[in-house]
Amino acid sequence: MIETLTPEQEALIPVYREKWGKIELSTKPIDRQQAEIAVKNFYGAIGKKEPYVWIFTSPTAAKQELLSRSPKKLATELGYSLLDIPFTSGLYEEITRQLDSQLIADLHQKLQIGLEQNLQFQQFQLIGIILQQLHNELSQQELEYLEQFWQQLSSWESFWEQQQDWMRGELLKLPGGDLVLQVGDSFWDNVGKPIAEEIEKQPLIREWEEQWREFLLPVLQAGKGLELMSRFASFSMQIYSASLIDFCVDVLNCQVDERKWSALKYLIKNCSWIAPFEKTCLVFDRPTKLFFDSENRFHREGEAAIQFADGYGIYVYQGVRLPAKYGAVHPNLWKSTWLLEEQNAELKRVLIQGIGYDRICTELQAIELDSWREYTLLIIDNDVDVEPIYLLKMTCPSTGYIHALRVPPTMRSAREAISWANWGVDPEEFSTET
């Protein structure tokens, strides 16, 4: 039982964070031959027959190819969706039996620093953006097709059946596992389920659902019809577990099933995302370009932030996916009048941020409400945002440069707005004006 790390072992943690971050966010095209070998090794390691490996250059290429078949034919060619999560979980459990629980917690925390921003969060964001884009591109006919495919595949049913069978099987291997299962089933029926149902009704839970609905709903809608696409997400989320297993095996000399670990490493290194099904494994090639801002959000001005080899690209501004009519234009050329036409609140927010209040004031002819010295309180009340925009216009006495700052709609005078902007300090108290 390993309880602590030596200083030398501690110093290697950032090395493994960076190693797996580079693997997962690589933009190097996959070697198709090596990817096929990796997938077949993976299936062999989990006791499945070799699948047909179907590789696509981009998500839209996959959509076009898959939807060219009838729902019944596609479901037959794919087979049921494989549960690959326990594959990693089994390796992880082998590791946890060899490490002190506190050390495991510490490793989780230390490996997560950096992974959250540079890997795990970015991958979740990437999958969400791609699914949102695909969903928006689907016609009504394609949505109906996917509903039919979903009914043919019934993948969620087989997915959860596999998960439950695997978990119960692993538990039965342990001493007293059968008794634990009996107690657990009884507890869930009589206590757990009623509590869960009550929790779902609580106001805070409902509020959380509403807050996330705007982002998650398109993803869930897309996932309902694009189960074969969303399976890539579960694979990418295994990278964090892989980095932990890798560190424990290489640095701490922990023992794991070598065949499974080798298969998982080879799979991750040679594939981007996979969607494993019984008969066929779908593989996406990697994006050829990924662009981020200083806060590690997907971001590019005037061109696609996520680009694939076949030319398919997705426009993103500070983590928010943009339609091409905005994304293909540099923010310096965005027009304030677009704010009068755009209905989506999030896109309006992005446009306001990109255009800037200075230009908005000038181009949309803001109305003056009050002035005090070189400060002016303005309002733009023509349905630019969900509520009227109140702005404090500030003119530098020496340079004549004009800057505008948004202030709360409760402001009624320029002087009050100046005090608000300066954390409640009245402008008469300023010792020096600049």
Give an account of the 3D structure:
This protein is α+β, with helices and mostly antiparallel strands. It has helices at residues 7-11, 13-24, 32-45, 59-66, 71-78, 85-96, 101-137, 140-153, 155-172, 177-200, 203-225, 227-236, 239-250, 258-270, 324-327, 338-341, 345-355, 357-363, 414-421, and strands at residues 52-56, 273-276, 280-284, 289-290, 306-307, 313-317, 320-322, 367-372, 375-380, 389-395, 402-407. The chain has three domains: 7-286, no CATH class; 288-329, no CATH class; 338-429, no CATH class. 56% of the residues lie in helices and 12% in strands. A hairpin with a 2-residue loop joins strand 8 (367-372) and strand 9. Helix 5 (71-78) packs across helix 8 (140-153). The radius of gyration is 27 Å and the shape is globular. The model is unreliable at 212-228 (pLDDT under 50).
In short:
This protein is an alpha+beta fold. The chain has helices spanning 7-11, 13-24, 32-45, 59-66, 71-78, 85-96, 101-137, 140-153, 155-172, 177-200, 203-225, 227-236, 239-250, 258-270, 324-327, 338-341, 345-355, 357-363, 414-421; strands at residues 52-56, 273-276, 280-284, 289-290, 306-307, 313-317, 320-322, 367-372, 375-380, 389-395, 402-407.
* Rg over alpha carbons: 27 Å
End-to-end distance: 64 Å
Mean pLDDT: 78
The H/E string reads HHHEHHHHHHHHHHHEEEEEEHHHHEEEEH
The total tally of domains equals 3
Write down how many β-strands occur, each being a DSSP E stretch of 2 or more residues: 11
In the predicted model, the low-confidence regions spanning at least 5 consecutive residues are: 212-228
Structural class comes to alpha+beta
Beta-strand content estimate: 5-15%
Shape: globular
Total number of helices = 19
Largest sheet: 4 strands, antiparallel
Strand order within the widest sheet? Answer: 4-5-6-7
Kindly report the oligomeric state of this protein.
single chain
Percent of residues in helices comes to 55-70%
